[in-house]
């Protein structure tokens, strides 16, 4: 039986921090728009307060999460226990985007690990915190982080990353505004 929490407790916080992978899901308002679900990792998630979380958004091929948040703010995070007792935790909320080119980003970035290719911080006011059994989630062994995303950003360098963001990250696949818009 699932449980609803009033806030992210210290026990829940410790459990969330121990997960190596989380998923982010968002959707546009249009009924024919595409729902997005993205896997994330690399020590990018932070608990900023009892009902506030955030993650460091790294350069990727798309900009769906940021575009959806700019349009409507709806977001859910899902964490699954792949080792230890079975458990799933979902954090629902209203998110905002703090782009890397803003003073607010500079004020927040010290809460996060520094990675090449960071393009924004997604900050979320959590409105619902719930867990469920996770009995159907398989067990997996963590073998390590992939370094491909960071190496790709380092290889590109600042100027090429800026060009990449302008070319690939200003509009979502549904045509919604992304970075810099």
List keywords for this structure.
globular; 25% helix; Pnp Oxidase, Chain A; alpha+beta; eight-stranded antiparallel β-sheet; 181 residues
Q: What does this protein structure show overall?
A:
The protein is α+β, with helices and mostly antiparallel strands and 181 residues long. 25% of the residues lie in helices and 33% in strands. Strands 1, 2, 3, 4, 5, 6, 7 and 8 form an eight-stranded antiparallel sheet that branches.
Summarize the structure.
The protein has one domain (3-168): Electron Transport, Fmn-binding Protein, Chain A (Pnp Oxidase, Chain A), CATH 2.30.110. 25% of the residues lie in helices and 33% in strands. It has four helices and eight strands.
SSE layout and pairing:
Elements: E1 3-5, H1 10-18, E2 22-26, E3 36-40, E4 45-49, E5 52-58, H2 64-72, E6 74-80, E7 88-99, H3 103-108, E8 118-132, H4 148-168
